[in-house]
Amino acid sequence: MPELPEVFVVSKFLKKEAKGQTIEDIVVRYSKMMDESMRKKLIGQTINDIETHGKYLIFKLTDYDLISHLRMEGKYYVSDPDVINKHDHVIFYLTDKVLKYNDVRKFGTFDLREKSQTYKIPPLSKLAKEPFEIDLDTFYAAIKKRRSPIKTILLNQGIIAGIGNIYADEILFQAKIHPLKIANTLTKKQAQTIIASSIDILTRAIKKGGTTIFSFKSDEEVGWFTQDLMVHTKANEPCKICQTKIGKIKVNGRSTYFCSHCQRM
DNA sequence: CCCGTGCCCTGGCGGC
DNA sequence: TGCCGCCAGGGCACGG
User: Fold this and answer.
1) A178-201: pLDDT as tens digits
2) CA A14 to CA A50: how far, in whole Å?
3) Same domain, yes or no, for A187 and A77?
4) Do A50 and A113 reside in the same domain of the chain?
């Protein structure tokens, strides 16, 4: 499931494939994904650039910004125009190629904004800064007034942007903090450690994804692979640091993996 | 404002 | 072999 590193890698792919191309036509195969008024506005627009903010992709067009969220399984790929795959929902006919948005679960979203409104209304108006830019005092102030588990806080895009369920577990493991630790009991030092671990893990994941970018296809995963993970999906396996069995619990309905010895309340 | 729950979706898998 | 129920999860609406 795409988190900040995967979205960043996708944006690199899109810059390579779609930057400078004009949208000549669009075929929408699942109407809830994109309505007709959006489709009409997009036709004739040139893709001048692709930016990212957290898990969002932002296509910078001639007159609008197109905000794309991949959610769990959304992906973009370029392929033979004659081949339509089962979960291709939006097909962009560009100047000299066909770009497809494929999404098995249909959870992905498209939002079109006037350029002046992009960051003024949802979804981007509510988005916090990414770990790379976030200010420690701001982050710590947000934490101090929350009574939820820290895991829940890391998934809150309005507090810190770009972290999803997989990297949240990995970040807390590296920071040696228990996922159920209540946010407002953290010290400023621990908040700082969380930010540092976030930057470290996201950066390493981006580098990892970057190695597969040139062979990117719809059915290839980007980002971290299972052997890079320390705790996520490792239930009952020995912790790579202390050999304690990795535990699995639910935090706010999300599967959460942790080491009860390395990560303290 | 904060916090928890249910919903959107499909495919894969365990159980029988 | 097939069917059923559950699980995966990001963001949002909605209730307390």
Assistant:
1) 999 999 999 999 999 999 999 999
2) 7
3) no
4) yes
Q: Per the domain annotation, does A265 fall within a domain? A: no
A107 touches strand B (CB under 7 A): yes
Mean local confidence (pLDDT), A100-110: 92
Residue with smallest Cα–C1' gap to C11: A71
Closest residue, CA to C1' of B10: A105
Pick the closest to residue A160 from A200, A123, A126, A203 (CA basis): A126
- Domain boundaries, position A164: 136-259
Same domain, A55 and A121: yes
Is A55 among the catalytic positions? yes
Strand order in the sheet with A109-114: A47-53, A56-61, A64-69, A109-114
The CATH number of the domain holding residue A112 is: 3.20.190.10
Strands (E) across A40-115 are located at 47-53, 56-61, 64-69, 75-78, 88-94, 98-102, 109-114
Q: Is A229 exposed, middle or buried (0-12, 13-18, 19+ CB in 10 A)?
A: middle
Q: Which two three-digit tokens encode residue A246? A: 């990795």
- Total tally of structural domains belonging to chain A: 2
pTM greater than the 0.85 cutoff? yes
